[in-house]
Amino acid sequence: MKKLGLFALGLGALLALSGCNEKKNYILATGGTSGTYYPFGGAIANIWNTKIENMNVTAQSTGASAENLRPLSKGEADYATVQNDVMDYAYRGSDMFAGQKLANLASIGTMYPEVVQIAASKSSGIKSIGDLHGKRVSVGAAGSGVEFNAKQILEGYGITFDDIQKNNLSFKESAEGLQNGTLDACFITAGVPNSALQELAFTAGLVLVPVNGLEADAICSKYSFYTKSVIPGGTYKGTDEDTEALAIKATLAVRADLDENTVYQMTKTLFENLDELGTAHAKGKEVSAEAAVTGISVPFHPGALKYFKETGILN
Fold first, then answer.
1. Cα 59 → chain centroid
2. Is the CB of residue 192 less than 8 Å from the CB of residue 117?
3. CA dihedral defined by 115, 116, 122, 123, rounded to 10 degrees?
4. CB atoms < 10 A from the CB of 157, how many?
5. Residue 7's pLDDT is what?
6. Strand 185-190 versus strand 136-138 pairing type
7. CA within 20 to 30 Å of 148's CA: 19, 198, 276, 312, which one?
8. Closest CA to 215 of 144, 103, 273, 130
9. β-pairing, 165-167 with 185-190?
């Protein structure tokens, strides 16, 4: 009986040891292979996989923000890169997620800004948001996050879609419209610089329309996912002065039901290895733990919150 007890004890220890060495497999939903989210997410996954023992995170190519949030809510993905405004809509069941409120969503932190860039043709005479009245304006693809950004910013200045000649076009189509004279202005929400606007600036020139003053303050107050940003002078050919703008932020989201210790460990590891992230992807240079707590409207996961409180970034 004594030998049997020792055997059982030894077997239990062996199984426990074996369990400790099991790899933890997670899915990080990102975006299309030609976009920013996929390689950026891959760089994050690599940090986790190389810095955390027995960690195996797979960066999975997807249709980006809106498509990522549904499997995250269902537990079919564990982490996701998303726009913080789209995540807000899903969490609250508003705008593009009207009547489709998603549960099981939490934030780790915001990563880098995606600036709402408002470009106008030089011939349009547009210099301010107010000048968009009656103009031919592309507000992004129908139902896209860009369209909601345009709607919210215009309303901040007392303008509705009924006050403009609204067009729903892709970034490339918008830039082409400004170049060939079929459009006067367009909204593009993307990292700076944007390739479509770079090409437009070189071929036909452009004017950047600022979002600033009391109107910008009111928009940020109403929609907590916006942050103030600046498009540096010289970003696009012929734009020599800084342009004030609003930005939403690429955000690292997580299943709310993932255990606290795992999320804490992954949050800590990511923010303690930002030099490596910046080396792996240019956008990594724009990430900081201090900025990661800005633009958050969906509650932090307890594991992420523990890290930010531990470091004194949050009280």
1. 16
2. yes
3. 170
4. 18
5. 39
6. parallel
7. 198
8. 130
9. unpaired
Element (H, E) at 222: helix 213-222
Neighbours of 213 (CB within 10 A): 10
* Backbone Cα Rg of the chain: 23
Q: What is the pTM of this model?
A: 0.84
Task: Work out the angle between the directed axes of helices 84-92 and 145-156 (0-180°, nearest 10).
Answer: 90
310 versus 195: which is more confidently predicted? 310
**Residues near 288 by Cβ (< 8 Å), separated by ≥ 6?**
274
- Report CA dihedral (224, 148, 192, 227) to the nearest 10 degrees: -10
Q: Which residues pair with 250 in a beta bridge?
A: 83, 112
Strand partners, 292: none
pLDDT digits (tens, 9 = 90+) for 225-243: 999 999 999 999 999 999 9
Written as one string, the DSSP assignment of 22-75 is SPEEEEEE---TTSSHHHHHHHHHHHHHHHSTTEEEEEE--S-HHHHHHHHHHT
Render pLDDT for 61-85 as a digit per residue (tens, 0 to 9).
988 888 999 999 999 999 999 999 9
